[in-house]
Amino acid sequence: MSLPHFAHVPSDIAIFTPPCKCVVCQHSFYQPTQQFNPVFSYRGRISDADAQRIAAQYVQNARQDREYLSQQLASHADVILNRWKKKSMDKRGALLVNTIPELYGQQWFPARYTYTPEARKWKSRDKTRRSQLLLPWLSLEVLKTSPAVLFSLLHNRTLYAPQDWVPYDTRQLNFGWACGYFDNDYLSKCVIMYGPRYGELTDWQEDHIHRADMIGFPRARLILGAQAFLMGALRKIVDSILQGVDLNKPATSEKWRSVVSLGFKHFGANEIWPTYTNQAFSAPPNFDINNLLSIAQTRLDDASDHL
Predict the structure, then answer these.
(1) 276-284: which pairs have CB atoms within 8 A and are 24 or more residues apart?
(2) 100 to 132, 153, 168: CA distances (angstroms)
């Protein structure tokens, strides 16, 4: 059999056959023909035990960080709010660099990264680059420019469970997955992505994976890893903001509740930011037909008023 024209296959590459080759499952497993290209090849096969341990650790870390952040917001949200708003953009940037050195400096990381020599190399990405690829929408520039960005992340990522964010977090990884930017291990099993069994390893089942109740381990590992990294980063940022504060001293969260009730907007703006262009900093997407009908009716009424 002749290999695809792009392929120069190193001798240590193994080709793994996924449980399904349909279009849906291509978002969970690389196809055998893709794996002839080194950037889409797996490092090897991972054991069930190791896969379950990795997934469980990501879920546990994200859950613990989410609970911690919720507690801090309940007791010291106003302190966080005031301290972060009072910092200049340069001081916010300095705190972020010291706290989360993995953050990419500028916006539009995927577009910038695509044109670097590293992007075209096989197995050339270190831990820092992997973190940036897991959260391509997050950058130092975005976080330091508008104080409201951090506030919205803290609110929405603690209010909504990780499973509610799976559709959005999955889409953010589409580009990196399609380009083969992630070093990954193969396993034919899947990870449950909803309900009380969230993050649990299970056998591949056609109907479940085709309706996204579960995702193949190679892709699910990235999603869970992205969520764990984000929650850990937010926890470190909050700890840095609260440094020197006596956490045993009673505090309030009244201003925070007021900000949340009014909605988030960029500094100096008069209107709340639109969800479509700020999805990462808004509530997770949720299909609600009544809400969609209400939005459509409101827009129709607005248009009628201008006629």
Answers:
(1) 278/152, 279/168, 280/137, 280/138, 280/153, 280/168, 280/172, 281/148, 281/149, 281/152, 281/153, 281/156, 282/152, 282/156, 283/156, 283/159, 283/160, 284/156, 284/160, 284/164, 284/165, 284/167, 284/168
(2) 11, 15, 22
CB neighbours of residue 244 within 10 Å? 6
- Which tens digits make up the pLDDT trace of 241-281? 999 999 888 788 899 998 888 877 665 555 555 666 788 88
CA distance between the termini of the chain = 67
Tokens read off for 64: 């613990």
Helical axes 89-99 vs 217-241, angle rounded to 10°: 130
pTM reported for the whole predicted model: 0.88
Contact 141, 105 (CB under 8 A): yes
Q: Express each pLDDT in 33-85 by its tens digit.
A: 999 998 899 999 999 999 999 999 999 999 999 999 999 999 999 999 999 99
- DSSP per-residue string spanning 11-61: TT------S--STTGGGTS--HHHHTSGGG--S-BPPHHHHHHHHHHHHHH
Three-state DSSP class for residue 300: helix
Three-state SS at 288: coil
Beta-bridge mates of residue 216: 190
| CA 3 – CA 158 distance, rounded (Å) | 48
Taking CB atoms within 8 Å and a gap of at least 24, the contacts of 139-142 are 139/103, 139/104, 139/105, 139/106, 139/107, 139/109, 140/93, 140/96, 140/97, 140/103, 140/104, 140/105, 140/106, 141/105, 141/106, 141/107, 142/107
CA distance 9 to 3: 9
